[in-house]
Design a protein that fits this description.
72 residues, 1 helix, alpha+beta, two-stranded antiparallel sheet
Length: 72
């Protein structure tokens, strides 16, 4: 994904900033706050990809560089 990355503290790996909200993560002053002990998606990956595709096609995706494809 184009755009900035957020450095999370060990044991978590850095993550694209745009992925924080869909994963339910908020980054405070110390530890990241998340719904699980590890950084896990709260929905199945295919649902995340479907939502990303929908947002990209509609031009509402964060950092979307391209307009949706014209039909026809």
């Amino acid at each position: 994904m184009p755009g900035p990355w957020t450095a999370l503290k060990v044991p978590h790996l850095p993550l694209e900033t745009v992925k924080l909200r869909p994963h339910g993560v908020s980054v405070g002053r110390s530890e990241p706050e998340m719904p699980f002990l590890r950084l896990l998606s709260p929905v199945p990956p295919h649902e995340l990809f479907a939502e990303a595709r929908r947002a990209t096609r509609q031009g509402t995706a964060p950092l979307c560089r391209y307009a949706p494809a014209e039909a026809g």
